[in-house]
Amino acid sequence: MRELFGTDGVRGIANKDLTVNLALQLARAAVAVLRRDETSRLRVVMGRDTRLSGDMIESAMCAGFYSAGADVVDIGVIPTPGIAYLARQMDVDMGVVISASHNPYAFNGIKFFSHQGFKLPDDTEMAIEAKVNSSEHLPHPVGDDLGRRLPAEDAMTQYLDYLHALVPEGLSGLKLVIDCAHGAVSAIAAPLFRALGAEVITLNDAPDGININAGCGATHPEVVARAVTAHGAHAGLSFDGDADRLLLADEAGRVVDGDRIMAMTAQDLHAQGRLPGGLVVGTVMSNLGLERGLERLGFSLLRTQVGDRYVLEAMQARGATLGGEQSGHIIFLDHATTGDGLVTALMVLKQLRASGQPLSALANVIDVYPQKLVNITVPEVKGWDAHSVIRRAITDAETDLGDTGRVLVRASGTEPKIRVMVEALEQDKVNHWTAYLADVISTQLT
């Protein structure tokens, strides 16, 4: 049973759940698990987002790595996928990102990547967790065997050059509104898209440590949607705090979620001969409209459990090049090893410019079923599905909807919440069953 690692690393309220001591122990344990042999010197590339606790957790992680004999290339503020990219480009053994992604500023998290740029597999994370929880004595090197800080040199430039090269024809003629969520793209998004020739209006690009994701970014796409219509832009880009996911707004101010992004880019990849087997990988949260829309196009959808790590595993197992989540984690495996909001934006805008069509036309390739997601905060998520009253309520909803809808109830892997999703052909049924299930769960668990 996992105690520390969730679906996306270790996460919690900084200095309460994710303490300095835990961060230090995770660093030391990671060295013990990932070191190739007793004599090798492990090298780490590390970055963070803009939240206030980042400096504290970063310092603790560095101390842990140094005390275990590992060297650290500290990039500072950088999108999570930037570290994934650098982990496979630089001569390092692993990557680490300090971020709680879309969560409020009081939260923070630690994500590990392999030297190939992939999130660590479950068994490796469990091995690290076991080391943290063990009474086993980990080595304490001394003298010149201690780790040290290594210069970052041109690491950020490498990442930006890689992104720029994805669209050699540029983006001239496009007017964009970009919501940076006061996060990791705040300093780099506008320069990148302007260098590609786009006209750019930026929102929420002044991080102060506590405003990350606050009423903005991918968790509030209505912000960029309003700005698109106000400025007469072709599209709006809404990133989350660490920029591993992206939501869009079309020229009419309508939100374009991850399902629509996958549908439209699947068509584009297929036309280029780069969608093997016509397969797209989504999750149990992917809308029925995506599944049936892909079927009409001659493609198919494979569903996994929630979490881009599980999407990636299925993509690798099945040879797929496109996968992602409704929330905007999209993986273009030909270009990146993890969800990258900047890569997603470039792929969509490249298609938009080449097609000559408005974003609304490209995104309307599927008809989305009415769907509603509610989150119920609970004291404890473990064991929620053992409650007979809750299970009976779910069965009642599923029986009523039949094959015209879906019900999904699950515990969050990153927060103390139970998530309830209902979709159906009729909005009234969606509203009814969402409210009913939320009430039952709240009554039983709070």
Notes on the structure:
The protein has 446 residues and is α/β, with parallel strands linked by helices. The chain folds into four domains: 5-154, Alpha-D-Glucose-1,6-Bisphosphate, Chain A, domain 3; 170-256, Alpha-D-Glucose-1,6-Bisphosphate, subunit A, domain 3 (Alpha-D-Glucose-1,6-Bisphosphate, Chain A, domain 3, 3-Layer(aba) Sandwich), CATH 3.40.120; 257-368, Alpha-D-Glucose-1,6-Bisphosphate, subunit A, domain 3 (Alpha-D-Glucose-1,6-Bisphosphate, Chain A, domain 3, 3-Layer(aba) Sandwich), CATH 3.40.120.10; 371-445, TATA-Binding Protein. The chain has helices at 20-34, 54-67, 80-89, 122-133, 155-165, 189-195, 222-231, 258-271, 288-296, 308-318, 341-355, 359-363, 388-401, 427-445, and strands at 5-6, 9-13, 43-48, 71-77, 94-98, 107-114, 149-150, 175-179, 199-203, 235-239, 246-249, 255-256, 279-283, 300-304, 322-324, 330-332, 371-377, 405-411, 417-424. The strands form five sheets. The protein has a seven-stranded mixed beta sheet, sandwiched between helices. It has a five-stranded mixed beta sheet with strand order 9-8-10-11-12, sandwiched between helices. A three-stranded antiparallel beta sheet has the order 17-19-18, with helices on one face. A hairpin with a 5-residue loop joins strand 15 (322-324) and strand 16 (330-332). Helix 1 (20-34) crosses helix 2 (54-67), helix 8 (258-271) packs across helix 11 (341-355) and helix 13 (388-401) runs antiparallel to helix 14 (427-445). It starts with a strand and ends with a helix.
Structural class: alpha/beta
Mean pLDDT: 95
Strands ordered across the widest β-sheet: 1-2-6-5-3-4-7
Return the CATH topology of the largest domain.
Alpha-D-Glucose-1,6-Bisphosphate, Chain A, domain 3
CATH C-level class of the largest domain is: Alpha Beta
Major sheet size, sense and barrel closure? 7 strands, mixed
Provide the CATH superfamily of the largest domain.
Alpha-D-Glucose-1,6-Bisphosphate, subunit A, domain 3
Q: Please name the CATH architecture of the largest domain.
A: 3-Layer(aba) Sandwich
Beta-strand share of residues:
15-25%
Task: Domain count, please report it.
Answer: 4
* Anisotropy-based shape: globular
Instruction: Report low-confidence residues grouped into runs of 5 or more.
Output: none
**How many alpha or pi helices?**
14
Number of strands: 19
Integer-rounded radius of gyration: 22 Å
Helical residue percent band: 25-40%
The end-to-end distance, rounded to whole angstroms, is 23 Å
